[in-house]
Automatic annotation (TrEMBL):
InterPro entries xrefs: Homeodomain-like_sf
Organism (species): Rhizopogon vinicolor AM-OR11-026
Top-level taxon of the source organism: Eukaryota
Protein name: Transposase Tc1-like domain-containing protein
Length: 123
């Protein structure tokens, strides 16, 4: 009860304003809005590309993991596999096909048999 009285005398309010604990965010609201607009303009954009754009336009250096975390906090779900993102680099494409293998089917690669990767099957 004494804490409530003290708070009321000091602030004129019964409850204290909550103080955000933890480390301050690197990306502010403007940066997060920019990431959202990047996804709306180009749904298959990679986090590395968003990282480059943040660096070039805003001069903000963030880790790759910060970008998906920020996007999730804004209500976006995880990104889906898309062929343009997968096929940009041959090594990445092969690694992705190996990873995806028998567990997923990419709709943009309709010539595949459901659940079968031509790369994974040839090994």
């Amino acid at each position: 009860m004494q804490c409530i009285r003290k708070t009321f005398r000091e602030t004129g309010e019964v409850m204290r304003t909550p103080v955000c604990a933890g480390r301050p965010r690197i990306l502010d609201g403007l940066d997060a809005n920019f990431l959202e607009s990047c996804i709306e303009r180009q749904p298959d954009i990679l986090p590395t590309e968003m990282q480059d754009q943040l660096r070039e336009i805003f001069g903000v250096e963030v880790s790759i993991s910060t970008i998906p975390r920020t996007i999730r906090k804004r209500g976006f779900t995880r990104k889906k596999f898309t062929c343009p993102a997968v096929e940009r680099d041959e090594n990445n494409r092969i690694a992705c096909e190996m990873l995806v293998g028998e567990h997923f089917w990419l709709p943009c690669c309709a010539h595949w048999h459901h659940g079968m990767s031509p790369i994974a099957n040839s090994l």
